[in-house]
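$ ./design --mode recover --in tokens.txt
reading tokens...
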């Protein structure tokens, strides 16, 4: 009888890590086991930890606009304008409606710029459905 024998998991994969990657994995395993113990659960070994991490993985898609440098520069200008208006208001101890209107316009423009950036998190890693061992 070979290695596969009566095992329910018959596929075996070898994985290699750099020293830095393995330190990160080992630290992550320690943190997870510490949390499991605090929650009253038993600690897990490397294989269970790796299986759980792969099974519960998620994909993150980040769409970065081509003109990110321009967006950053524009936000810096808006921030500078708002700071100048605030400094003037603090120095003179007075504001007028036009000044406040300019601040709100600048902030609305900043909101539009930031809204143009897109971050989407997808959790549908397994397109064929949930495996039966879950």
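writing sequence...
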């Amino acid at each position: 009888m070979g290695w596969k024998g009566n095992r329910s998991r018959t596929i075996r994969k070898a994985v290699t890590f750099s020293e830095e990657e393995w330190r990160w994995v080992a630290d992550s395993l320690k943190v997870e086991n510490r949390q499991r113990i605090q929650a009253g659960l038993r600690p897990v070994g490397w294989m269970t930890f790796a299986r759980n991490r792969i099974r519960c993985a998620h994909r993150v898609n980040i769409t970065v606009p081509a003109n990110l440098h321009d967006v950053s520069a524009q936000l810096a200008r808006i921030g500078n304008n708002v700071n100048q208006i605030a400094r003037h208001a603090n120095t003179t101890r007075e504001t007028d409606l036009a000044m406040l209107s300019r601040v709100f316009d600048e902030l609305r423009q900043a909101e539009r710029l930031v809204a143009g950036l897109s971050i989407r998190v997808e959790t549908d890693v397994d397109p064929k459905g949930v495996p039966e061992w879950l």
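exit 0
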